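Need a sequence for this fold. Nothing fancy.
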């Protein structure tokens, strides 16, 4: 082992100074054996065996447990609804941000066109007095007509897509009405007007 020959003691400001420390082998001391880590008292394992004993549950803990089991279906339903609506809400927020950015940097002439389209909707609302069906048809119709004057290409695409959807809905409605007609009005006993009997 090494023995320090010179020691340095001084104020704290001198601690930043560098100095040389000389050490020499200590030959006169007997050679000691090293101590293992598990022989140190700090790392000794207690002799007694420990046993975990669970405390009895109190009335409050039992009540909270029953409440959690009672609310579990509702919380799982809420989590499922949240996971389903989160992407829709994120896309809605993104659409709002995009619309806001578009309105901040609107092309020239956009706001006058928007005013004319809105005015056409108001005129349609004024002309639709009295009938609820007219109030549902006239304002969107007048607004669509005004918008198609300013944006003819988009209007053509919209009419094509909406026409296909209306045709699809009409076909589905026809099939439903036909099935209801067959179930309710063509009974097995009513074979008088069937095409096979003449």
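Here you go.
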């Amino acid at each position: 082992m090494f023995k320090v020959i010179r020691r340095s003691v001084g104020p704290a400001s001198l601690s930043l100074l560098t100095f040389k420390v000389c050490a020499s082998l200590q030959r006169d001391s007997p050679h000691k054996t090293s101590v293992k880590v598990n022989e140190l008292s700090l790392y000794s394992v207690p002799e007694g065996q420990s046993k975990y004993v669970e405390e009895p549950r109190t009335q409050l803990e039992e009540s909270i447990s029953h409440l959690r089991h009672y609310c579990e279906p509702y919380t799982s339903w809420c989590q499922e609804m949240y996971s389903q609506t989160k992407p829709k809400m994120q896309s809605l927020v993104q659409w709002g941000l995009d619309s806001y950015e578009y309105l901040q940097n609107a092309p020239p002439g956009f706001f006058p066109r928007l005013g004319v389209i809105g005015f056409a909707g108001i005129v349609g609302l004024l002309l639709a007095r009295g009938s609820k069906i007219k109030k549902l048809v006239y304002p969107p119709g007048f607004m669509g007509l005004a918008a198609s004057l300013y944006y003819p290409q988009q209007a053509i695409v919209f009419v094509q897509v909406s026409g296909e959807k209306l045709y699809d809905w009409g076909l589905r409605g026809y099939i439903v009405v036909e099935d209801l007609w067959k179930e309710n009005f063509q009974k097995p006993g009513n074979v008088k007007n069937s095409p096979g009997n003449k």
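For context: The chain has a mean pLDDT of 79.
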